[in-house]
């Protein structure tokens, strides 16, 4: 099977059993995704392509990004489509987006913590100035039905075992926390835009994701475990592996975002993520099971202290009760599919270089 | 205080010690000490030019053996111990230096920068992490930053993927309370390990290292007989003895590390580190101890007091690698010599 | 002494600090005129400055040049290595001269005091690195006056504040490019480049030390060549000064240079950024003269 067939199947699996009908408001409409060539944007493009091909939705999708070339090389099957248009632009300068659009998803931000550390000012500028630019542009979109802003699960903190949308704790002050602070401010800007400019805007708070199109170069647990396994190395866990995380698969996430966009009321705030928590040790074991031979798992490769770790398990009661959404791809399956996709990609590259 | 709390020892005798001999450690000496350290159960043995990988230069001193020879020799003589290297971006590059080092069998990479410049380490740390190698971030001359700012820099390294942070007292300037305060803050706020590297300019290397351990540090550096630039580093075998007595576990055999120190004294070191007047001055002034040799040489050449050079360098906040500035300072001092009021 | 010539129309792509500093130098030049100041974000400080100075601005990126080819004959690219790799073939197709200030470095390495004539006939030149601009003239002089240049080492220190994220993330590229440049211009068998960031306050100027190991050091001849060469450099980088040497120390040749910036848009301590921009302007002005000469000859 080819990689794009795999990701297509992922989308179809989500859309079957009548779930496609829940996205009916998207039929024959235009959707703009700003920051559309990252993980989320690419999966939304996959989902739109599936809706158009299998269910004749007739959606016209515009992906706005600074790195349109990267998208063309990462997902050529999507870039080549007639119903997907790439617009090269900085979020702070949105001159070229189609003014007739019905929907806008604002997903422009770099989630790479290394960039936040080395370029905190640029990080803040893209998020804050970018969001101001988006809401100002939204004021002039005559047919806009909804604007969905992708914030972050990090904007609130709490002592509870999972984060609900009502958690009151704010991120700490300081340059080390520029990303969650900027995101929190950007959410507030969206709120102000709703109040002042009457823009129908709602906020989704993404937590952790897993799936194809996620670069293994990032220093997150799920990506480093996969990278270790993919390169035939033992999987190294720095601590005792008991830290808990949760991961939502790419196609689930794309479906959730589109559902929230089309049916959510203006002013809503919705967590997007999986509540199925798993310890890092268990995650490492699941990753290991998907490789032949199975890599060794090394625990406590670095003695940890009892310092800070951020809680990142979302409470998804709200999205379940109000939107009828639940996690369709269990974590085991999510890891299996992601591992397969990366292995396919690695073999594909090998063929190119040996062929 | 917990008993049997584990402390990882990293031993840079063959790296930091290289400063004391103008980077002239031979491959025979490297092989000899590696075997002894390996035998004693030292967890990490760090080898190379005093300023790390790729630092052999006219500016910092040319090493007797190349990085390749040093590391391959070390690798051949370490079976249980991990082989570590010190890497400073701006001296070492990923393509030319780091990649080959990994091929030669390096296990632990410590990417180091002046304490306020952690972000130059992003690429080297990310790269090391992507190769599945153990990687730490090091903050040098850490006394030059307040604890809060030091934490900020440490956080950057944590986000690049460092598995631990070692902050270094490169000038031997700290008092134990300052160390305790910093370790407590870092341990509280970071989710990764914290380590400490002391220098002995004010006779406090052991005390400072203990303060670090008590405050929650999980890694300490130490060199046989304190082999290192100027006043030397923490005397490893003494540290092991004290840690053992206080109930920490280091996995190092005390008798064998004492033997390794004897061996180092007899075969590897020319002089035992002592706290000379110059060392006191450099510790007080907060100037990198590795400057001692060039300062002494240039002071003699220009006929000025090396202590005056130190205090002047301290005022200029000179960082490691700025040896060329010593010439300038000496020149300036000779010009003002006549005008100085003693 | 120079006759007044028709100003060469140039464009600047990249509206950050470097591009804006370049713009101010262009506006001051009697031989250059800015036909377009191009970036990504019309609200950035650089763009706002350019606009207030009456310079045509655009956020359309390279498309602006494609759609308005008459806006310039020469383009300064102050964006990023990745972007330059896209821009270069487009500009070549449009027959525009390019001065590349990014780490891409696909064209000829240009150090005006040393290879201005060779650079003048190229369509794409790059300004090497700041350490390269400061040290290559000295390395070149060493190559020309000394027997058997075995090894040249260049250590640069720049103030921490003058080194932004782009510099910090490209240290390896800086080292490689500087080493390559040194080798090419001096003929040395081996070269090494080191870069230090100095956090001292008040901020230090850029300082570069050149060490050389040669067979039979000849300081007097080196001095003889270095003096007029330094004067030449000072014509376009007024803040360039040899502060020590050439001397022989421990049988190594040592020269120390300091570069203080003009303070046009960037602070004066950022001599490292200024020397590249000054060199780029010097090259562009040379093109302006060459172009004017050709036009004259064509009648």
Question: What is the element layout, followed by pairings?
Answer:
The complex is a heterotrimer of chains A (355), B (342) and C (299).
Chain A: H1 3-15, E1 30-34, H2 39-55, E2 60-65, H3 68-74, H4 76-79, E3 84-88, E4 103-106, H5 113-118, H6 120-138, E5 146-150, H7 178-197, E6 201-206, E7 209-210, H8 221-230, E8 235-236, E9 244-245, E10 248-249, H9 250-263, E11 269-272, E12 278-279, H10 280-289, E13 297-298, H11 317-323, H12 331-354
Helix pairs in contact in A: 1-2, 2-9, 6-7, 8-10
Chain B: E1 5-6, E2 8-14, H1 27-40, E3 44-47, H2 67-76, E4 82-87, H3 94-103, E5 108-114, H4 122-130, E6 134-140, H5 147-160, E7 164-168, H6 176-189, E8 193-197, H7 205-214, E9 219-221, H8 236-245, E10 248-249, H9 254-268, H10 277-285, H11 292-302, H12 306-315, H13 324-337
Parallel strand pairs in B: 1-10, 2-3, 2-9, 3-4, 4-5, 5-6, 6-7, 7-8, 8-9
Helix pairs in contact in B: 1-2, 1-9, 5-6, 6-7, 8-9, 10-12, 11-13, 12-13
Chain C: E1 8-13, H1 17-28, E2 32-38, H2 45-52, E3 57-58, H3 63-67, E4 74-77, H4 81-93, E5 97-100, E6 108-109, H5 112-120, E7 124-126, H6 130-145, E8 149-159, H7 165-169, H8 171-186, E9 190-198, E10 206-214, H9 219-236, E11 240-249, E12 252-259, H10 271-297
Parallel strand pairs in C: 1-2, 1-4, 2-3, 4-5, 5-7, 6-7, 8-9
Antiparallel strand pairs in C: 8-10, 10-12, 11-12
Helix pairs in contact in C: 1-2, 1-10, 5-10, 6-8, 6-9, 6-10
Question: Could you characterize what this model shows?
Answer:
The complex is a heterotrimer of chains A (355), B (342) and C (299). Helices cover 43% and strands 13% of the residues of chain A. Chain A has 355 residues and is an alpha/beta fold. In chain A, the strands form 4 sheets. A 7-stranded parallel β-sheet of chain A has the order 3-2-1-4-5-6-11, sandwiched between helices. In chain A, strands 7-10 form a two-stranded parallel ribbon. Chain A is globular. By secondary structure, chain B is of the alpha/beta class. Chain B has helices at residues 27-40, 67-76, 94-103, 122-130, 147-160, 176-189, 205-214, 236-245, 254-268, 277-285, 292-302, 306-315, 324-337; strands at 5-6, 8-14, 44-47, 82-87, 108-114, 134-140, 164-168, 193-197, 219-221, 248-249. Chain B is globular and about 55 Å long. The model of chain B has no long low-confidence stretch (mean pLDDT 92). With 299 residues, chain C is an alpha/beta fold. Chain C is 43% helix and 25% strand. Chain C has 10 helices and 12 strands. Chain C has a 7-stranded parallel β-sheet with strand order 3-2-1-4-5-7-6, sandwiched between helices. In chain C, strand 11 (240-249) and strand 12 form a beta hairpin. In chain C, helix 1 packs parallel to helix 2, helix 5 packs parallel to helix 10 and helix 6 (130-145) runs parallel beside helix 8. Chain C is globular, with a radius of gyration of 19 Å. Chains in contact: A-B, A-C, B-C. Chain B binds chain C through residues 57-59, 89-91, 93-96, 114, 116-117, 119-120, 122-123, 144, 316-319, 321-322, 324-325, 327-328, 331, and chain C through 151, 153, 155, 157, 160, 165, 168-169, 171-172, 175-176, 192, 194-201, 207, 209, 211, 213, 243-244, 249, 252, 254, 256.
